[in-house]
Amino acid sequence: MKKLWPVALALPVFSISVYAEDEPSATTQVDAILAEKVKNAPAAKKWYVGGAVGLGILQGWNTDAVDHYYFTQGYTNTKSSIFDTKWYEGAIYIGYKLSDFQDIDLGFTMNNGDDTQREYTNINGDKITSSRGINFSALYVATLLRPVPRGGLYFKLGAHVSQFGIHKTVTGTPANLGSIAAGDQMLGDGTSTGVGSLLGFGFDFRAGKDGILRLELNHYYRLGGTSYEKHSLNAGL
Description:
Blueprint lengths: L4 H18 L3 H15 L6 E13 L4 H9 L3 E5 L5 E12 L4 E20 L5 E19 L7 E20 L4 H7 L6 E18 L3 E10 L8 E8 L1
Antiparallel strand pairs: 1-3, 1-9, 2-4, 3-4, 4-5, 5-6, 6-7, 7-8, 8-9
């Protein structure tokens, strides 16, 4: 009988051990449910498109050289329209989420500015009106860096290929108007095309289940490759 005790004691232990291995635990069941939900969850949206409208403010506009030129020709400035350096602008873009911290944007933006007019007269009563209109358009690529994963705040760094135009029109009564108009020159006259950079920051506000309202402030350097710059404040979806 003494030799049978080890066997008898081992049987219950063996039986309990087999039961524990065959019956899944509560933790195992929960893990399986979570894994199934992750497997069936919809993929995160990587691509997005949007559009915005806003206001652009030109930097670097200066008509002193034009005034000085007409002064050397015997004319004085008698009337000037108030040139509003604020432009209405629009933008469209497509973006891709590289990670929770970074997006890539490809976009197009354009502005149109009102004409500015300056009138000059001389002692003979001759009058000249010098007008300039402005437009700007750019194709840009930029990276959006988010300090908080999937957060609303982001910082923007990019480059643009742009076209910047200052279109001059000179009208008046002098007989030598053509020769005078040829000397009426200002930095950036004509159409310039070139590359520049942009810096900015913005915030994405959640709008519904999938929508986003974006508010963004940018600064564009070297419009059309010139020394002109602009601020832009945009809002859109």
